[in-house]
From TrEMBL:
Domain Terpene synthase metal-binding: 3-72
Keyword RNA-binding: no
Protein name: Terpene synthase metal-binding domain-containing protein
Species per Swiss-Prot/TrEMBL record: Gossypium gossypioides (Mexican cotton)
A Pfam family recorded for this sequence: Terpene_synth_C
Classification via SUPFAM superfamilies: Terpenoid synthases
InterPro entries according to UniProt: Isoprenoid_synthase_dom_sf, Terpene_synthase-like, Terpene_synthase_metal-bd
GO molecular function, a single term: terpene synthase activity
Gene3D superfamilies assigned to the protein according to its UniProt record, in alphabetical order: Farnesyl Diphosphate Synthase
Keywords attached to this entry: Lyase, Magnesium, Metal-binding
Record-level GO BP terms: terpenoid biosynthetic process
C-alpha cells in the first residue's frame, strides 16, 4: 500500500539511517585493502587521511560507529511504526544479511570464501528442530 511504500523510500527514519551506516561501514571495513590493491579509493582510506589515523584506528572507529548504528536499529524496531512488521523488518533483516556477508571477509564480492559455507549450513544442512 501507499503508506508502506512511502515508509520504505523515506531515508530519514531511524531504521534506514542505521541500515545505511551498517552496510556502508561493514563493506568499507571488509573491502578496504582489496580495493586499494585494485587502485580504488575506499572510505577507510579517506577516513585515515581526514583524521590522520592508522588503518587499525580507522577500523576501530568504524566498529564504534557500527555499534551505535545497531543500537539505533534496535531502538527503531521498538518504536511504533505506521507499517506492518513484515515491512518494518526489511531493513533489520538486510542489516543482518550484511553482517553475515562481511563477518569474516568480503563475502559479497567473493562469496566462495565464506558465504559458501554459510549457505550450505542454512540450506543444505539446516539445524533440525
Amino acid at each position: 500500500d501507499e503508506t508502506a511504500y512511502q515508509w520504505l523510500i523515506n531515508t530519514d527514519n531511524k531504521l534506514h539511517k542505521a541500515l545505511n551506516i551498517i552496510a556502508r561501514l561493514y563493506d568499507d571495513t571488509a573491502t578496504n585493502e582489496a580495493e586499494e590493491k585494485r587502485g580504488l579509493v575506499c572510505g577507510t582510506s579517506c577516513y585515515m587521511k581526514q583524521y590522520g589515523v592508522t588503518r587499525q584506528e580507522a577500523v576501530a572507529a568504524y566498529r564504534e560507529m557500527i555499534e551505535v548504528a545497531w543500537k539505533d536499529m534496535n531502538e527503531g524496531c521498538l518504536e511504533p511504526m505506521p507499517v506492518s512488521n513484515k515491512v518494518a523488518l526489511r531493513p533489520l533483516n538486510f542489516a543482518r544479511l550484511v553482517l553475515v556477508a562481511y563477518m569474516k571477509d568480503d563475502g559479497f564480492t567473493e562469496p566462495e570464501l565464506s558465504m559458501k559455507d554459510v549457505i550450505a549450513k542454512v540450506l543444505i544442512h539446516p539445524i533440525p528442530l
